[in-house]
Here is the input.
Amino acid sequence: MTAVTSWADVYGTPLYVYRLDEVRRAAEDLRAALPSPTRLYYSVKANPHPLVVAELSRLGLHAEVSSVGELDAVAAAGHPGGRCLYTGPGKTVAETLAAVRQGVTLFSVESTTDRRRLADVAARADTAVDHLVRLNGTASGASGLRMTGRPSPFGVDVTDTAALRETFEPQGRVRPVGVHVFPATNVADEPALVDEFAQSLATATDVMERVGHRPRLVDLGGGFAAPFAAPGERPRYPGLAAALGGLLDGHLPGWRSGEPTVAFESGRYLTGGCGTLLTTVLDVKRSRGTTYVVLDAGVNVLGGMSGIGRLMGTAAQPLCDGPGDAVSLVGPLCTPLDVLARTANVVDPKVGMVLALPNVGAYGLTASLVGFLGRPVAAEVVLDGPDDVVDVRRLELGQGRETT
Ligand SMILES: Cc1ncc(COP(=O)(O)O)c(C=O)c1O
Here is the structure.
């Protein structure tokens, strides 16, 4: 079996290594944790690599997309537009038209304006389009990153009855088919996740009763957690299927026969564990009591959103054989924000050594500042099992072309 770090000798660093067998394992685990029958969407934002998308598509997952780039990724994966849900708070006419032309017939609308624009596009394309109404409900327990349940650009406020009534009215060639909630990502544990779903279901059914809507599809979102850039296992949810089954029986009695279809979404749980980042130590420096390990991967390669202070700081920890030195892991960029870990454990760090950061298959390269300081984008290699290379590629950022 090939040690993961040896791929650095073949393809250089920084290098993302993705394992499709890990993607399959995660998908099986999540399916087993969810009640049946339900639909599962893969949130392409977590990792838009077409082979990752293709693997999940082959396993029967639908795709949740929210940009033209993600539409390209699903097209490259051979995933049909008819099995996509298009989401996002600021959809343009151009991207909505591109989605409709690619066969997407299901959108999540986030406001009355978003719904009107969708109706205009559907009329222009002379295509019938369905939509969910995304709700901004009430907040429940603790979570990693809360998206609704407070002032938010996402969803229609459940207190705004006039806006709810308007978005649930059929208009032209668009018609509402249900609701969408996605209150939070990376929720702490199983009880918190069950609380989140209980709250969402109660909110969704209350809204649908108020506006007199009978749903064909209820998308309860996700919040399934995964470790990031440090060793660790995906959480297990042994009691989730039964707890959710009970909640669904109470709120949506026809769900077991698909009336309505119930859906969930996940990005990080499905792909987080499939990725490892290989990075080479370029320098080891002592400065006033701190050891800095300077890597060839910084926030341009990993965790850019934490680098710019938008998320909780990255606390990367490479795979490590034993107790080592407490060091600061920094990248090569000329900014003090280029930090992957203030304190990580590295055994005897040396120039030329290759470190492996695990659990970066979700929100790794795709959530990084790839254009910042103009370094080459990290290469990505896709394996099936530890030894079989399926694909190697590197995104190119050029100087661009003149546009008129
Ligand atoms: C609407 C929506 N769906 C799905 C996701 C994916 O979340 P995660 O990767 O935590 O599963 C997000 C993340 O922001 C989201 O906004």
User: Anything to note?
Assistant: The pocket of pyridoxal-5'-phosphate is lined by residues 43, 46, 64, 87, 147, 182, 185-186, 222, 224, 265-269, 362 (CB under 6 Å). The mean pLDDT is 93.
